[in-house]
Design goal:
Blueprint lengths: L1 E4 L5 H11 L3 E6 L29 E4 L6 H12 L2 E8 L2 E4 L8 H12 L2
Length: 119
């Protein structure tokens, strides 16, 4: 999947696009330089445009595929588009940070979320 990332794109649109392919994962966005381990209220709202996070007109395509790791995805967003993202995995009714399993592929994360959530 190629996700178009442009200054005017809303975070919520990018989140929905990602979640369509990986329904048991979600992306949360935060400002670079801030820790991804902040309380959820510090994550950026879905109605924010990318330009509100990084005013330098980064534009391009994020390459997202099931064989890439969470760490690779997170680094790509930061390095190419100047925005921090944290991947969460569904676990029943909760969303858990994938920090301890950042070396897992997106496919493995999504499958694990499915196994835990659908029983």
């Amino acid at each position: 999947m190629f996700m178009h990332i442009a200054p005017e794109r809303l975070i919520g649109d990018i989140q929905r696009e990602f979640n369509t392919v990986f329904p048991f994962l979600k992306l949360e966005f935060y400002r670079p330089g801030e820790s991804a381990f902040l309380p959820a209220k510090r994550f950026l709202p879905p109605k924010y445009a990318i330009q509100n996070v990084d005013p330098t007109d980064h534009e391009g395509y994020a390459v997202v595929n099931e064989s890439m790791t969470v760490a690779e995805l997170e680094h790509q967003f930061l390095n190419l588009f100047g925005v921090g993202v944290q991947v969460y995995r569904k676990s029943g009714n909760l969303w858990l940070e994938t920090t301890m399993t950042d070396n897992w592929t997106l496919q493995k994360q999504n499958e694990h979320g499915r196994e835990i959530s659908i029983k």
